[in-house]
Amino acid sequence: MSLQEFIGQTISLEVAREADFGYFLTDGTEDVLLHKNETNQELALNEKVDVFLYTDSRGRVTATTTIPKITVGVYDWAVVSDVNPGLGVFVDIGIQKDMLLGEEDLPVHSSVWPTIGDVLFITLRVNKNNRLYVKLATDPVVEAHAQKAERAVFNKSVHGYVYRTAKVGSWIFTAEGYKGFIHESQRRKEPRLGQKVEGRIIDVKEDGTVNVSLLPRKEEALDVDAEQILSVLNERNGAMPYWDKSMPDDIQEKFHMSKASFKRALGRLMKEGKVYQEEGWTYIKGK
């Protein structure tokens, strides 16, 4: 078998010869370079060594004694290390070269692309040119790794990472190992792919998956909404062209909340004597 068939995998090779810049390893037919900056051990002639094979920037097969948890067909979590618009995002799998998740495998809208520090559940794939790329976990893969939730977890707080995103909702893999779904009505803003989110379980399905809400509980939501309104007012020196008869779309765009939530929070602030309305505007009292 060609060494190219082991790209993205771990293989045991033998030291064929040493050079100033590293070691040449062999499977008996082909040689591959193990550069000295890819190992922290001294190797002897004919010694067997386990290495991970990947392709360098020129597409050449190269070796490292750093064995990553993520290999072709093996899934694990990895952190996004860089974002390159027009190309994709780079992921740190633990070796010197970061792996690319190509733009074609990312959401259409770059606003929900992962950012540096986000976490993805991935494996590696080799394309037809023997280049190594990141592959995102699909629903069947997550289902195979997931734990089934029991009814007792209903209304419990959870956190997890988004592994798939769409306009209708977001899918997450929770820290407990549950596969979860966040309907678009249960989030104020669409989270990024790979973003850590915190919410609560609002339903446990027969198949052991869960539905999650990122919205605060009612009293918490009222506090948050009221603070958001006051924050906008303070930014505008105590006056804003929004009131309880403003259009729902305008409220959603400015405050990231429904008109019903806006009216409840505004009503509370008026009842507490903190704000008042006049001719389509809302003002902070005393300003």
UniProtKB/TrEMBL annotation:
InterPro entries hit by this protein: CvfB_fam, CvfB_S1_2nd, CvfB_S1_3rd, CvfB_S1_st, CvfB_WH, NA-bd_OB-fold, S1_domain, WH-like_DNA-bd_sf
Recorded protein name is S1 motif domain-containing protein
What region holds the S1 motif domain?
155-215
Species whose genome carries this gene: Bacillus benzoevorans
Q: Which GO terms describe its molecular function?
A: nucleic acid binding
| SMART domains found in the cross-reference section | S1
Q: Which domain of life is it from?
A: Bacteria
Which Pfam families does this UniProt record tie to the protein? CvfB_1st, CvfB_2nd, S1_2, WHD_CvfB
